[in-house]
Amino acid sequence: MRHIMRTINRRPFQYWKRLQQGGWKMDLFMQYLITGLTIGSVYALLAVGFVTIYNVTGVLNLAQGEFAMLGALVSVTFVQVGLSIYISIPLAIVCVALIGFFVERLAINPVKGAKPGILIVITLGVSIFLKGVALLIWGTAPKSLPPLFENKPIQLLGAVVNTQSLWIFLILVIHLVALYWFFDKTFLGSALRASERNAHAASLMGINVKNMSAIAFSIAAALGALAGAMIAPLTDATYDMGFFIGIKGFVAMVFGGMHSIQGAVAGGLLLGMIEAFSGGYVSTYYTDAIAFGFLLFVLFIRPQGLFTKADGTRV
Amino acid sequence: MRNASQVLYPGRGKGLVIFIILIALLPLVVTTQYIFTLLILLGIYSIITIGLSLLIGYAGQISIGHAAFYGIGAYMSAILTTKFEISAWFAILLGMGMTFLLAYFVGVRVLKLKGHILALATIAINIIVYTILNGWTAMTGGALGLGGIPKLNLLGIDLGNQLNFYYFVWTIVVFIIIFSSNIIRSNVGRILRSIHDSETGVTALGVQVSKYKVLIFAISATYASLAGSLYAHYIQFISPATFNVSFSILLLVMVMVGGVHSIWGAMIGTVAITFLNEGIRYVSHNYLHVSGEVEIIVYGFIIVVMMIFMPNGIVSLFDRFQKRKNEHESDSGLDLKPVDAKGGV
Amino acid sequence: MTEPILQVEHLTKRFGGVTAVEDVSFEVFPGEIVAVIGPNGAGKTTLFNMITCFTPPTEGIVKLNGQNITDKKIFELAPLGMMRTFQNLEVFGSMTALENLMTGISVQLKNRVFAAGLRLKSARKEEQYAYEKAMELIELTGLQGLEHTLVEQMSYGQQKKVEFAQTIISNPQLVLLDEPMAGLNEVETEAMADTILQMRDRGMTFLFVEHKMATIMRIADRIVVLDFGKKIAEGIPAEIQKNEDVIRAYIGGDLDDVKSSEYSH
Questions:
Q1: Do B244 and A5 touch (CB under 8 A)?
Q2: Is it the case that residue A14 has pLDDT exceeding 90?
Q3: What is the pLDDT of residues C174-227, one digit of tens each?
Q4: Could A5 and B134 be called an inter-chain contact, meaning their C-beta atoms sit closer than 8 Å?
Q5: SS3 for A282?
Q6: Tell me, what DSSP letter sits at residue A141?
Q7: Mean pLDDT by 10 residues, chain C (265 residues)
Q8: Which residues of A touch B252 (CB under 8 A)?
Q9: C-beta atoms surrounding A273 within 10 Å
């Protein structure tokens, strides 16, 4: 039994140390800031996935982190068979989106409207299952993905920055703009938002709410996979990296107030920053405790999230 | 006027007697040391899952953080006995008391949250406690753990002896079952159950619902602390890895798979998941020659399938059987009162 | 002159731009049965929710036995002797009638968790007391034979009885009933009215919202009439029946209400 407990957990996120490699003469503050934004962007991508699924289906997908793990490992495999990394990553994202689709169809759809407890356990089961599959395919050895671009440290505002960090940040921004466009300007996006606001009304309008749920899962899986592929060059990808990354995405979502994509992005960046600064100025040992302590603090004083307008309604 | 408890909730005694006989006789059948160790661990885990069943099934509050309280109990026992040479029994009680207070004060804030957010908050508690266990090296020994925890001795009976310890742990389990089912059968239990139907209704009746949720949270945490102490004295060595979120997840899965609305369900789930894990591992290693931890595929798969097709857990099978039996008997003219599945423990 | 048990002073509730209840004041005296009537949407339920602390009023205060209760929490009212029922039944479906009634008496019990766990004498005594009291109420409300039936398996009328019994079991001074007769047939309505009268004779005070005019006229000592959130009349039934404002409000307001009140004659 112990082995199962062990597999679910490992501390995956100490790699920002690695991000700082090459930072011999640097302005520490800038260094932490950029590190925080980089990790934060990854959390933000996951958090956006969480928000999408949660608001369309009411399910909090604790297997979200596994999509990131799969995104990273599938990319690695495609690279290993000789594909270019620029093809491998999009291909991996498509594969993982498909997995997300099947997860929804096979595990979530049959229990529509179940209590949170049951949904939590089902997504945990999916999480464990996917991890097992990854273990079977890729084994326990850490895999690494080549950097997207030549990885030379550059000087930026006094800090020495890994170019990979900047690319992650850039890609995040591009995707957020794309998501904004998707939800605001396309029919599918509007349909998703409609089913999130009022499923019944949406179904009366001829929107197939059931399909929306599967689409939401696919989108979230794709975002997770993208996040995974982004961090794979920075940290080694392993089959058990998923759960903790997923939880971090969840935290980012809560910071942002559960319902807004902008909030989730801000929450992700904030969490990344908290980790980088507490790791830098306090101790890398207590990074998690500080991040989660801050989460509890937020939940106690502003359970509606940090980046939402307070509304006066009493529940 | 008839006695209230007989009218309301008849027939707990029979199940309990069968259970006690089973526990008493098992050591005669079990010969493998390995299985015997598992049985002791099952007893320790059951203490936690019974508490979780009170919390999740009755108070309706989810927790993915009970490994933290398990850890606090274990470390209190370990530190107090090895570093301060305090009596083991006193250390256990001190650990339980401290956990109760801690869980109570944390619970007052945390249990204002609901559903998924509450789950996340309990994960956060678990991670914070875990990090402290790891980081506070001077006290806890950090990742290397703490060893040399003494075996227990009860009035001259050596509980270091496997058989003695087995009976000791399961006696505690029986007491926990009785204590918990007494709560469920009291007015407190009715209040907890009524929350599921209408929180508004029970609040309007003048009940401060949150008070009971917090109390049950603290009690379930205290159970976990007791289990942690027992674990520490049994294994004699503890390290933070045992008290990670993953163990909380395992506990949650046990309770949900067994059936969260019943104490027996929690126990059935504990047994089922433990043997499932061990069984899958045994088969995959010895017959399929798969190494590593690949068996978690099967494990994850079974959890998902169970929750889809049996959302009320394994124990719902027994309920169904019981219902059919009752219907049958009332057909034959016996005047039997309908047994409420939730009231009967 | 006795002190009023309930004082409603200038209660006002605005939701955004809409005023649901505007400057409503009235008093209820011990031993009275007071009805609040008015066309649909007149603000009766909002008024009830403000009195029972479910909704905070925009302006105005509520006093119970002279004590300001406006800012109390919902669960603090029962210990002060005020209980309420709900328009859409807040009973505990997965529990038996007996268990529902025993839960109703919670406010009189200490409900000590550890005493219950150890089954101390105090806990056993409480249990027995709750049981006996519940059996008494079962008899009183005519639920005999249904003690062990799950409430969700009962008819609507029976569920209404359970809710009523569960509300009065702890012997509150003042009971607020939100449409106690809605959905009941004629026999059940009369039985409910009789029980209310019977409990009044035992010293309880009632404030209730209802649409069935015949029953209101029969059991109410006084009637408060709301229309568009304002109190337009207050008086004994005979006065209210003749009051032109009231007649206008009903006919100008919602014809269905008049019809349904005719049917229930």
A1: yes
A2: no
A3: 999 999 998 888 989 999 999 999 999 999 999 999 988 889 999 999 999 998
A4: no
A5: coil
A6: S
A7: 87 87 92 90 88 92 92 90 90 90 86 83 86 89 87 90 92 92 89 92 92 90 90 89 81 51 44
A8: 120-121, 124
A9: 17
CB atoms within 10 A of CB A216: 26
Angle, vertex CA B220, rays to CA B270 and CA B84, nearest 5: 100
Inter-chain touch B116–A120, beta carbons under 8 Å: yes
Please name the residues between 233 and 252 in chain B that touch chain A, using a CB distance below 8 Å.
241-242, 244-247, 249-250, 252
> Can you tell me the distance from the alpha carbon of B84 to that of B49, in angstroms, rounded to the nearest whole number?
31
ipTM of the complex: 0.85
DSSP tag of A102: H
Task: Give the separation between CA B277 and CA B289, rounded to whole angstroms.
Answer: 16
Spatial distance between the Cα atoms of B33 and C98, rounded to a whole number of angstroms: 50
For residues C46 and A172, what is the distance between their CA atoms, to the nearest angstrom? 49
Q: CB B305: neighbour CB atoms within 10 A? A: 15
Extract the tokens encoding A266.
Answer: 């801000």
Neighbours of chain A (3+ CB pairs under 8 A): B
Nearest Cα of chain A lies from the Cα of B127 at a distance, in angstroms, of 6
Residue contact B191–C103, C-beta within 8 A: yes
B308/A contact by beta carbon, under 8 A:
yes
Name the residue type at position B13. Answer: G
C-alpha angle C243-C246-C249 in degrees, rounded to nearest 5? 150
User: Exposed/middle/buried for A167, CB within 10 Å: 0-12, 13-18, 19+?
Assistant: middle
Interface of A with B in 160-199 (CB under 8 A): none
Residues in A touching B285 (Cβ below 8 Å): none
| B–C interface: beta-carbon pairs under 8 A | 139
Q: For A125-183, how does the pLDDT look when each residue is reduced to its tens digit (9 = 90+)?
A: 999 999 989 988 888 888 888 777 666 777 766 667 777 777 778 887 888 788 878 87
Kindly report the pTM of this predicted structure: 0.86
Q: C192-216 burial string, b = 16+ CB within 10 Å, else e?
A: bbebbeebbeeebbbbbbbbbbbbb
**Chains contacting B (3 or more CB pairs within 8 Å):** A, C
**How far apart are the CA of A61 and the nearest CA of chain B, in angstroms?**
10
Do the Cβ atoms of A131 and B135 come within 8 Å? no
In this prediction, residue C120 carries a pLDDT of: 84
Measured from the Cβ of residue B179, the count of other Cβ atoms closer than 10 Å reads 18
Among B124, B135, B260, beta carbon nearest to A285 = B135
**Nearest Cα to A156, choosing from A35, A274, A268, A270?**
A35
